[in-house]
């Protein structure tokens, strides 16, 4: 088999569109699975509510806070709390954020994710744990609206984690994944009323592959070779970083197994 | 049935599990005494690694069979079975599979990095 080929078709602030060729479906699928659920990021995991007189219940508010994307480019510098020596949380394994808002006016006060502050920028770079803002002039995600005399005073503890544990840690909001857009391999059975060709819209990836020839016999030896993947991130990590860290996570898994295997091999002494 | 090979005829190397201290990898009982066939139990792994590792090991012409399973969805471990033609041991086949997969990952990562840095594609505006 020829060497793997990677083509970037499109890239932006929070998505990258790539075509992967000469690879096996299993490997591309491993990459997809790792990007979605095994890249470490930071997200709010503990919320200490000092005051909440808003209409939202504490647990409802905590859940909303947890889902806010936080800058995770330096997530690898953070320890997992479970591996840390501290009792509950400390600077090595968490980032503390605060949200304080009181409405004093007759009109409602909107509280946005940009109102969250990193309490102690302990690390050299204070980008870690900062709520993501897609542009400087916008205020981020609306968390709650306060009426006159309502108040929010919460301390949030953001921790490192992976999306296998909770989806809030996923750096990807979605990954588009396709192969064989003409369905030449017959891996899908397209349901139809009268004619599947007319009723199903063609994928834009069809332009990148030869349409099937009606007179060709079905090639039962054919395997998928070209994969179209669009990685869309939540902003926690840049899309190219997701790609690289994802592959690193995969390599780390392999290295762990290789290490354990060499230990197990020593035990086999016959 | 005289012509049949019963299980007792197959020389078995281990009847107990061989586990390393952190339990990441266990060699399940019933490894062939010449090492040509073995089953591994790998903790905390699933289809993400199982399928692609299986594929990589099967690519090796010295390997007769490689398959993986997740015995039960509630248990977070994966079983990997390797049988070779006897030229190499199952452990060596697994080691080679792991090495090859890391090499492929490196190639893909480098190619992506080069392509991405080249900037030869549609770039959406970056705010």
TrEMBL record, chain A:
<dbReference type="InterPro" id="IPR011263">
    <property type="entry name" value="DNA-dir_RNA_pol_RpoA/D/Rpb3"/>
</dbReference>
<dbReference type="InterPro" id="IPR050518">
    <property type="entry name" value="Rpo3/RPB3_RNA_Pol_subunit"/>
</dbReference>
<dbReference type="InterPro" id="IPR022842">
    <property type="entry name" value="RNAP_Rpo3/Rpb3/RPAC1"/>
</dbReference>
<dbReference type="Pfam" id="PF01000">
    <property type="entry name" value="RNA_pol_A_bac"/>
</dbReference>
<dbReference type="GO" id="GO:0046983">
    <property type="term" value="F:protein dimerization activity"/>
</dbReference>
<feature type="domain" description="DNA-directed RNA polymerase RpoA/D/Rpb3-type">
    <location>
        <begin position="15"/>
        <end position="260"/>
    </location>
</feature>
<dbReference type="GO" id="GO:0006366">
    <property type="term" value="P:transcription by RNA polymerase II"/>
</dbReference>
<dbReference type="GO" id="GO:0005665">
    <property type="term" value="C:RNA polymerase II, core complex"/>
</dbReference>
<protein>
    <recommendedName>
        <fullName>DNA-directed RNA polymerase II subunit RPB3</fullName>
    </recommendedName>
</protein>
<dbReference type="InterPro" id="IPR001514">
    <property type="entry name" value="DNA-dir_RNA_pol_30-40kDasu_CS"/>
</dbReference>
<dbReference type="GO" id="GO:0003899">
    <property type="term" value="F:DNA-directed RNA polymerase activity"/>
</dbReference>
<keyword id="KW-0804">Transcription</keyword>
<keyword id="KW-0240">DNA-directed RNA polymerase</keyword>
<comment type="similarity">
    <text>Belongs to the archaeal Rpo3/eukaryotic RPB3 RNA polymerase subunit family.</text>
</comment>
<dbReference type="InterPro" id="IPR036643">
    <property type="entry name" value="RNApol_insert_sf"/>
</dbReference>
<dbReference type="Pfam" id="PF01193">
    <property type="entry name" value="RNA_pol_L"/>
</dbReference>
<comment type="subunit">
    <text>Component of the RNA polymerase II (Pol II) complex consisting of 12 subunits.</text>
</comment>
<dbReference type="GO" id="GO:0003677">
    <property type="term" value="F:DNA binding"/>
</dbReference>
<dbReference type="InterPro" id="IPR036603">
    <property type="entry name" value="RBP11-like"/>
</dbReference>
<dbReference type="InterPro" id="IPR011262">
    <property type="entry name" value="DNA-dir_RNA_pol_insert"/>
</dbReference>
<keyword id="KW-0539">Nucleus</keyword>
UniProtKB/TrEMBL annotation, chain B:
<dbReference type="GO" id="GO:0005736">
    <property type="term" value="C:RNA polymerase I complex"/>
</dbReference>
<dbReference type="InterPro" id="IPR036603">
    <property type="entry name" value="RBP11-like"/>
</dbReference>
<keyword id="KW-0804">Transcription</keyword>
<comment type="similarity">
    <text>Belongs to the archaeal Rpo11/eukaryotic RPB11/RPC19 RNA polymerase subunit family.</text>
</comment>
<dbReference type="GO" id="GO:0055029">
    <property type="term" value="C:nuclear DNA-directed RNA polymerase complex"/>
</dbReference>
<dbReference type="InterPro" id="IPR008193">
    <property type="entry name" value="RNA_pol_Rpb11_13-16kDa_CS"/>
</dbReference>
<protein>
    <recommendedName>
        <fullName>DNA-directed RNA polymerases I and III subunit RPAC2</fullName>
    </recommendedName>
</protein>
<dbReference type="GO" id="GO:0005666">
    <property type="term" value="C:RNA polymerase III complex"/>
</dbReference>
<dbReference type="InterPro" id="IPR022905">
    <property type="entry name" value="Rpo11-like"/>
</dbReference>
<dbReference type="GO" id="GO:0006383">
    <property type="term" value="P:transcription by RNA polymerase III"/>
</dbReference>
<dbReference type="GO" id="GO:0006362">
    <property type="term" value="P:transcription elongation by RNA polymerase I"/>
</dbReference>
<keyword id="KW-0539">Nucleus</keyword>
<dbReference type="GO" id="GO:0003899">
    <property type="term" value="F:DNA-directed RNA polymerase activity"/>
</dbReference>
<dbReference type="Pfam" id="PF13656">
    <property type="entry name" value="RNA_pol_L_2"/>
</dbReference>
<feature type="domain" description="DNA-directed RNA polymerase RBP11-like dimerisation">
    <location>
        <begin position="38"/>
        <end position="110"/>
    </location>
</feature>
<keyword id="KW-0240">DNA-directed RNA polymerase</keyword>
<dbReference type="InterPro" id="IPR033898">
    <property type="entry name" value="RNAP_AC19"/>
</dbReference>
<dbReference type="GO" id="GO:0046983">
    <property type="term" value="F:protein dimerization activity"/>
</dbReference>
<dbReference type="GO" id="GO:0003677">
    <property type="term" value="F:DNA binding"/>
</dbReference>
<dbReference type="InterPro" id="IPR009025">
    <property type="entry name" value="RBP11-like_dimer"/>
</dbReference>
